UniProtKB/TrEMBL annotation:
It comes from the Eukaryota. This is Helicase-associated domain-containing protein. Residues 133-224 form the Helicase-associated domain. Keywords: ATP-binding, Helicase, Hydrolase, Membrane, Nucleotide-binding, Transmembrane, Transmembrane helix. It comes from Biomphalaria glabrata (Bloodfluke planorb). InterPro entries: DEAD-box_helicase_OB_fold, HA2_WH, Helicase-assoc_dom, P-loop_NTPase. One of its GO terms (cellular component) is nucleus. SMART domains: HA2 (SM00847). The chain crosses the membrane at residues 169-191. The gene is 106071809. PANTHER family: ATP-DEPENDENT DNA_RNA HELICASE DHX36, ATP-DEPENDENT RNA HELICASE. Pfam families: HA2_C, OB_NTP_bind, WHD_HA2. GO terms for molecular function: ATP binding; DNA helicase activity; G-quadruplex RNA binding; hydrolase activity; RNA helicase activity. Signal peptide: none annotated.
Length: 361
């Protein structure tokens, strides 16, 4: 990063400054808010979550080291010394707080034996329940059999750098010739949401999303249509205007575009495509068939299926509509979903990628 001119003040905002490998030479002051976003996975509920937690001592030390990397500087920690002393030395290893299905598939692909004994050799290994849950999930996905033998689907999923359910979805997308839209959804879910909504513009953004979704009532179809619109506007030379009007990040869309190309090449390399071109006609004969696209999404995300139910006499809710998932717990659409304010649906069934948990500290 370039230094600014003399007598110019520069402000850099980072949420993960402690893990940022970029050295900013002229930073003299660091203000540490003491919080960090951490990905967690709850095997009992089969729920991934992105939670805001307090930093560990190691995080605080790394942030302090960013102040005055090449000259004298100061760091201000916005929490008490008592809180710092009571903080853990390190955050739990990633293996203890993420899904294990990808790791399990790699173990089987490399023929390293039974999954549980192998993972248990780690210095800080996940619980037996978490490992067993991952194995059970892969068996239900038809990636492993009951004896933990790698099935054909599991072999191909192990060669894809993504969560197995998303991998299954893109394999189905290739086989059913609706590659382009399915890769859009897969890239968006694997990377990040392309929407950037300024403070105070939430209502306007919700209207744009609803318009993009059309009659589909689907967040996934909305993503597909948003990406299609960007591609068309890019050809016309008005991509920046399109992104501004639809609250989209052009940089994120370009990264998603590149990810789609990489995934298409992977599918071509393992023999699922006749051409590595995302737009190739043979791979997209059914890319306008919304019914088939929804079926492929369901096949990939299953068993993440929810049933819409009516909860009577619940005065706390704006609408008396909730969804019941497989463990019979009740959930509601995320506020950013195009279905968050709907009261009527063509079907009582919905498919979902994940159920985020909110944690306030």
């Amino acid at each position: 990063m370039r230094s600014t001119k003399h007598l110019t003040q520069k402000l850099n905002l980072h949420f993960h400054l402690d893990i940022n490998i970029i050295t900013i030479d002229d930073v003299l002051y660091v203000i540490d808010c003491g919080k960090v976003k951490v990905k967690n996975f709850h095997p009992q509920m089969n729920l991934p979550s992105l939670e805001i937690q307090w930093v560990s001592k190691a995080n605080a030390k790394q942030r302090r080291g960013r102040a005055g990397r090449v000259q004298a500087g100061h760091c201000f920690h916005l929490y008490t010394a008592f809180h710092y002393m009571s903080a853990p030395d390190y955050l739990p290893p990633e293996m203890l707080r993420t899904r294990l299905e990808e790791l399990c598939l790699q173990i089987k692909l490399l023929k390293l034996g039974k999954i549980l004994p192998f993972i248990s050799k780690a210095m800080e290994h996940p619980s037996v329940a978490a490992i067993s849950h991952a194995i059970e999930s892969l068996v239900k996905l038809s990636a492993l059999d009951a004896e933990e033998n790698l099935l054909p689907l599991g072999y191909h999923l192990a060669r894809l750098p993504m969560e197995p359910h998303t991998g299954k979805m893109i394999l189905f997308g290739a086989m059913f010739c609706c590659l382009d839209p399915i890769l859009t959804v897969a890239a968006s879910l694997s990377f990040k949401d392309a929407f950037t909504i300024p403070l105070g513009k939430e209502e306007a953004a919700n209207k744009v999303k609803t318009k993009l979704a059309g009659s589909s009532r689907s967040d996934h179809i909305m993503l597909i249509n948003a990406f299609k619109g960007w591609e068309k506007s890019k050809k016309k030379g008005c991509a920046r205007t399109y992104c501004w009007q639809h609250f989209l990040s052009e940089n994120t869309l370009q990264l998603l575009h590149d990810m789609k190309k990489q995934l298409a090449h992977l599918l071509y390399d393992i023999g699922f495509l006749a051409s590595p071109d995302v737009k190739h006609q043979s791979s997209n004969k059914n890319s306008e068939n919304l019914g088939l696209i929804k079926a492929v999404l369901c096949a990939g995300f299953y068993p993440n299926v929810a049933q819409i139910v009516e909860v009577a006499n619940d005065y706390r809710l704006l609408y008396n509509i909730k969804m019941m998932v497989k463990d019979r717990s009740l959930v509601m659409p995320h506020p950013k979903s195009v279905n968050s304010r709907k009261t009527y649906f063509d079907s009582v069934w919905m498919v979902y990628h994940s159920i985020p948990l909110k944690k306030i500290i």
